[in-house]
Structures are given as structure tokens and as C-alpha cells.
TrEMBL record:
Record keywords: Amino-acid biosynthesis, Aminotransferase, Arginine biosynthesis, Cytoplasm, Pyridoxal phosphate, Transferase
Name of this chain's protein: Acetylornithine aminotransferase
Source organism of this protein record: Rhodovulum marinum
GO biological process terms held by the UniProt record: L-arginine biosynthetic process
Family: Belongs to the class-III pyridoxal-phosphate-dependent aminotransferase family. ArgD subfamily.
Residues holding pyridoxal 5'-phosphate: 96-97, 129, 215-218, 273
Length: 396
């Protein structure tokens, strides 16, 4: 018999009722150290007082208002995002997938309005993940994502990751509306794109006119130690997808864009009933006020350095379990020699939550508010988990 919840997830038998900072408390009272943070969503940990206050204050005033009217909380968040980024304008969504949908529509409409309606292709890269809608699965293009869900939305061109030289120049021609890429791949296995590649892509897009879309749904909002990951490379996109951390746990996403890239999105061309609602935007503004503070980002970088250093030590101590540490900031991956899922399971036994990713990687995505004590504790628990999964013959 089908369960009452559609069984699209293989859920761990863990049930939580409360959270405090980096900790989740199970229904039986057991405390788990949360180094998954809802897959990079709980940027400020659980039950952060500023977010609880923003949400409850707004809940007593106004929950929902149609986008037929002005929404002051939405305006405040849009103004703050525009002030803090390359963007001139923002559209709010409820998820990263919806941000992907709009990014694709925006890029195609840009060329349509320029009199090139056939310039529709979106270039994406192996290992990418942009969501689960028809456009987003076509963007990924892998059998795992698309099998059984045809006919696929046409107009996506898939390149290797990272793509080099001729592969790129040959592929980005005058059929390409936009190039879409995660500056640090998340689901693909915590794979950062080298700065030189991001710069090269920017140059190529400038030469050909193709728009550059960064998907910062997972790597954005302070996760890598800058407000957005692309800032490290010193290049800006034309369009950017944001979600996850921007709402700190309240469903919120956004598409940020330059005025030129957004030119086709005139009244009536897009919409969302809930996108940009007062509750989400009040929380989003409270998140941005904290994460956008340079002192907060300095602390993220300091803690990221500490975590990375400790993880390098862990990898050296367990060469039969781990191959390498990779990633940026507090978006780190442990490439495993044993099945990554085994290490995640062994972590559960140590009351530590981590998240598996493709390429046999275990993701560590703690809240950005993680403390040095939390880091030391997590690494000690990972050490115990690694010992538990060490292949037997390596013990001798
Ligand atoms: C890079 C990236 N883009 C898009 C998405 C889709 O976001 P959502 O699950 O909020 O629809 C995700 C989700 O994991 C993601 O990591």
C-alpha cells in the first residue's frame, strides 16, 4: 500500500521536534549535531532569535498579500539585495526550482525581444542540479533525472564540467541564449569551479552576447564566506538564482538580474501567488541584515578555515576512508573511498547529521553560526564514524 506521504524520499528513521542553533533535538530527546542544516537552508541555525522575532512580528500583522498590491517587506528586501549585489532588480519565488524556471524564461525572452526568437539554448554542465521542474530536469539532462518524464523540454546543451577551451568556444554560439552554472556544484559533489573558469565563461559570454546565469541556490548567502560565491572570482552574472539560505528555513527564493537581462520581463510575463509574501520577505530581510554584515562573513571565513584544517587532519588519519576534502567556506565535501552513504549512516550512530552527494561525497553544510566547539565536536564524531566504517583488512 502506498504510504500517506508520496514515497519519493528514502527517509532516515530520525524524527526531530526542536532545534537550537547547530543542534536538533529528536522526539526521544537525543541531541544531534546538525552539519546538514536542511541542505544549506538553516543558514543561521535553528530558532535564531532574530528570525523568530521577524517571523512572529510579521505573523501578527499580515501573512499574505497579492502581488497586485505593493508589499513593503518585499520592497525592503529587494532594495537590500540590489544594494548588496550586481543586480538591478529581483523577483521573489518560493524555491530554487522556481528561480530556475524564471531564469530560463528571462534569458529566452531577452533574445525574443531582441528579434532573435530562435536563440533559445541554455548551456549547462555535467553534474549540475537546478531543481525538479520540467525545465530544471532538462537542464540536468541525466538519465537519473529525466527517465520516464518525457517529452523533455528542448533547448538545453550539456557540456562536461569543467569545460575547457574549444569545448566551450565551440558550444557557445549564436543559438545560445544563456550559460547556466553553479559556481560551486552542490548535489554534484561539492565541486568548485576554478575562478579562472568563471572568468573565462564571463569573457566568452561577453564576446558572444550569451547571458551568464549563476545558480547560487546552494552556494550563495554567505555559504562560501562571501555574500555570493562568484564574488571570490571577481566576476558578476547577468542573472542569478538564489534560494535555500536566503530564507533561513522559511521558503523563499529569488532571481536577481541586471536591468538589461531583465528587459523582457514586462507586466504579465511572469507571476507567483506566494512569491515575495510578507512573511517570507520579513524573514529574508532579517537573514540578509545578519549575513550581509562583513564581520559575520569574516567569522564564517575564520570558522571555515578551522573546519577545513581539522578535516584535512581527519583525511590524513583515515586514508582508507577518505580521499580528499574539497569545497569552499562552510560548503565542504569529503570525497570517500568507502560508500559515502555508509559514512552518513555511521554519523547518525554518532548523532551527527551530514548529507550525501554525487561523486561519493559526504557534504558538510553547518549553519553559518556554527561555533568552534561545534566544529571540534563534529570532527570528533566524524572521526568515530570513520573508524566504524574503516575496511576490516586495513586494520591489520
Ligand atoms: C544549486 C541548486 N539549484 C536549485 C535547487 C532547487 O532548489 P529547490 O529544492 O528549493 O527547488 C537546488 C536544491 O538543492 C540546488 O542545490
Amino acid at each position: 500500500m502506498i504510504p500517506s506521504i508520496l514515497p519519493t524520499y528514502n527517509r532516515a528513521p530520525l524524527e526531530f521536534e526542536r532545534g537550537e542553533g547547530t543542534w536538533l533535538i529528536a522526539t526521544d530527546g537525543t541531541r544531534y549535531l546538525d552539519f546538514g542544516a536542511g541542505i544549506a537552508v538553516n543558514a543561521l541555525g535553528h530558532a535564531h532569535p532574530a528570525l523568530v522575532a521577524a517571523l512572529t512580528d510579521q505573523a501578527g500583522k499580515l501573512w499574505h498579500l497579492s502581488n497586485l498590491y505593493r508589499i513593503p517587506e518585499q520592497q525592503a528586501l529587494a532594495d537590500a539585495l540590489v544594494a548588496a549585489t550586481f543586480a538591478d532588480t529581483a523577483f521573489f519565488t518560493n524555491s530554487g526550482t522556481e528561480a530556475c524556471e524564471l531564469a530560463v524564461k528571462m534569458a529566452r525572452k531577452y533574445w525574443y525581444d531582441k528579434g532573435q526568437p530562435d536563440r533559445v539554448n541554455i548551456v549547462t554542465f555535467a553534474g549540475c542540479f537546478h531543481g525538479r521542474s520540467s525545465a530544471a530536469i532538462a537542464a540536468a539532462g541525466t538519465e537519473k533525472m529525466v527517465k520516464g518524464f518525457g517529452p523533455l523540454l528542448p533547448g538545453f546543451v550539456h557540456l562536461p564540467f569543467p569545460a575547457h577551451g574549444d569545448e566551450l568556444t565551440g558550444a557557445i554560439d549564436d543559438t545560445v541564449a544563456a550559460v547556466m552554472i553553479e559556481p560551486v556544484q552542490g548535489e554534484g559533489g561539492i565541486r568548485p569551479l576554478p575562478d579562472a573558469c568563471l572568468k573565462g565563461l564571463r569573457d566568452l559570454c561577453d564576446e558572444t552576447g550569451a547571458l551568464l546565469i549563476f545558480d547560487e541556490v546552494q552556494c550563495g548567502m554567505g555559504r562560501t564566506g562571501r555574500l555570493f560565491a562568484h564574488e571570490w572570482a571577481g566576476v558578476a552574472p547577468d542573472i542569478m538564482m538564489v534560494a535555500k539560505g536566503i530564507g533561513g528555513g522559511f521558503p523563499l527564493g529569488a532571481v536577481l538580474a541586471t536591468e538589461a537581462a531583465a528587459a523582457g520581463m514586462t507586466p504579465g510575463t511572469h507571476g507567483s501567488t506566494y512569491g515575495g509574501n510578507p512573511l517570507a520577505c520579513a524573514v529574508g530581510k532579517a537573514v540578509l541584515d545578519i549575513v550581509g554584515d562583513p564581520a559575520f562573513l569574516d567569522a564564517v571565513n575564520r570558522k571555515a578555515g578551522l573546519l577545513r584544517q581539522r578535516l584535512e587532519g581527519l583525511v590524513a588519519a583515515h586514508p582508507d576512508v577518505f580521499e580528499q576534502v574539497r569545497g569552499a567556506g562552510l560548503m565542504l565535501g569529503l570525497k570517500c573511498r568507502v560508500p559515502a552513504a555508509d559514512l552518513v549512516q555511521a554519523g547518525y550512530a554518532q548523532h551527527l547529521l551530514t548529507v550525501p552527494a554525487a561523486d561519493n561525497v559526504v557534504r558538510l553544510l553547518p549553519p553559518l553560526t556554527v561555533t568552534e566547539e561545534d566544529i571540534a565536536e563534529a570532527v570528533a564524531r566524524l572521526d568515530a564514524a570513520a573508524s566504524a566504517v574503516t575496511p576490516k583488512e586495513a586494520d591489520t
